[in-house]
Structures are given as C-alpha cells and as structure tokens.
Amino acid sequence: MSLLSDLINLDLSGTTEKIIAEYIWIGGSGLDLRCKARTLPGPVTDPSELPKWNYDGSSTGQAPGQDSEVILYPQAIFKDPFRRGNHILVMCDAYTPAGEPIPTNKRHAAAKVFSHPDVVAEETWYGIEQEYTLLQKDINWPLGWPAGGYPGPQGPYYCSVGADKAFGRDVVEAHYKACLFAGINISGINGEVMPGQWEFQVGPSVGISAGDEIWVARYILERITEVAGVVLTFDPKPIKGDWNGAGAHTNYSTKSMREDGGYEIIKKAIEKLGKRHAEHISAYGEGNERRLTGKHETADINTFSWGVANRGASVRVGRDTEKEGKGYFEDRRPASNMDPYVVTSMIAETTILLKP
After folding, report:
1. Is the pTM of this model over 0.70?
2. HSE (side-chain half, CA atoms, 13 Å) at 153
C-alpha cells in the first residue's frame, strides 16, 4: 500500500516525457501569490517555449465578473524543488486579452526601465535582503513566543543558535536548499533581531532577474510554510513596541560604481535618491511608516540621510566601498513587503535616467 508521501514524491521520469509547469503570478493585493499547474508534452528550457495561459481575474480581485479573463505571459523559468525532475516553476506577469498590462503588473514597467540602453550599459546589480516573520498558525503570534505573551528582550536572537533563541530553523534551511535547487541566486540566510524573524539574501542579480528571483523565492517560502503548518508574514512591523521591524534592504551598484572612481558616482547617485525621497517612500511598501521611525536600525521616514557604516541612515555605504573608492551602496528604506520589480527599477531610473 503506497503512502501519500510516496505518491507525492513519485518519479515520473521513467514513465513519461511529460512535465508539470507551475504557473505563478501576483494577485490583486499586489502582495499575494497565486499559482496553478498544467501538463506539458516535454522539457522546456526557455519561457518563449511556453504557452500563454489565462485565469479568472474576478476571483483574485483583478477583473470584473462580466469580463474576468486575465492572460498569463511566462517570463522566467526555475526548477521545481517540490516535484523535482524536469518539472518547472514559471514566473508570469498578467495582461488583458487585448495585451495591456493589468494595474498590478509591475513587471511590465520595470522591464521597460531595464531595457533602456543607458540602463543596459550600466549592468545594474542588486542584492536584496528579504526579512520575514514566522507566525504560529492558530494564533498569528510569532513562532517561539509564549501564547499571548512575550519572550525576553532583543539581544540574544540575532544570528543565534539554540532551542530557546532560534525558532523555525527547519523552515529556513529547507527554503535555502530549495532555492539553490530552483536556480535562484540565494546568497545566504540568518536569524534576525526579533525572535521568530529571519532573513534570506538574493543576489547579485542583474536587472529584472532580481525581481523574478525574489518573487519565486517568496513563493517557495510560502509553499514550505504551508507544509510546515506555520504562517509567513512580510508585514514591516508585525509586533508593536520595542521590537525590530522587517525590511528588504536593497544593495545596488552599476558598472560605473564598480570601476575606479566609482565612489564619486555613488555619491551622485545617492544625491539623486535624496531628491526623490518622497516618491521612493511612497513606492517602498505598505505600512512602512510603522517601521521607519528612526529607531530599531532605521531612519525616520520623513528625512533622507546617508552615511558610511550607518545602519540608522536611509542609505548606508560600506567601509570597504569607502576604502576602495568603488563598490555598492545599500538602500535601507524598502519594507519587507515591497514589490522588488518596483524598487529595483525605481532605483535604476532615479540613479541612471534622472538627469542632475
């Protein structure tokens, strides 16, 4: 008698050439991920080989019931760590039947920025530090916290080890390996300052691929927490009071910044970011005002600042960058629930395409 787990893990490679493609897209809130699977006749290596598909947009808050069809355009392929074999995950964006991007399709506008010749020439690199919080399923309270109560104050939990300090490591480790299997350029993980909070880093990734990789990494994490029976939240301030919030610090460099004399380019880029501070803040995540208070390693939301090795600034420049006179900088303003397509393209647009 086969166990359910045996059937879930069934290897189809010796039985059929067919593969399963899991189409993934962003739902009506701009934060929720949706997915559905279809069978394809054989292995696929490029998104252009995949058929477009459709879904009921009235059920995701993206179309009216009387005209509910939304079209999925495959944009990026990753190996499927859940089904394995030749099965794939497909990151898609969404369009009307007439071919117009729907309002929640932020990838379309980002792709235009990243295809601009001036941006292409600068080879934009991103490293995104995605923080998140794991919650107990039935009470929506951080993992490892006493029900309705609080653990000891922050201090022992950052990069910690031990059953009384690190909560949810099995989820984190499973996610790390699943992302590597998928082909996502995940570069590390660590426990965060608030207990039950963790971080993974993706990058360096070039241009639009940074957004694709973050979204698929989020999808994989959602799937793993689903199996583990815990709840995932990207709320930028999940617990009020003297607890750190959750961000998505975005490390950034251009070809010019990485070459000799790049530090001057970096300073000019930061100056441009300061001039558009309000516009960036408005696009950097819902509820970010609860996080950017000037406390808990953040700058105040209303004031733009930068500094070398200053984690209380809007933008931080590393000591190595200052010493070597070239490198990258870190935009610390994005919230954990930011849309990586919006943030990465906006940084490129401001620093490269915006004239002094």
Report:
1. yes
2. 3
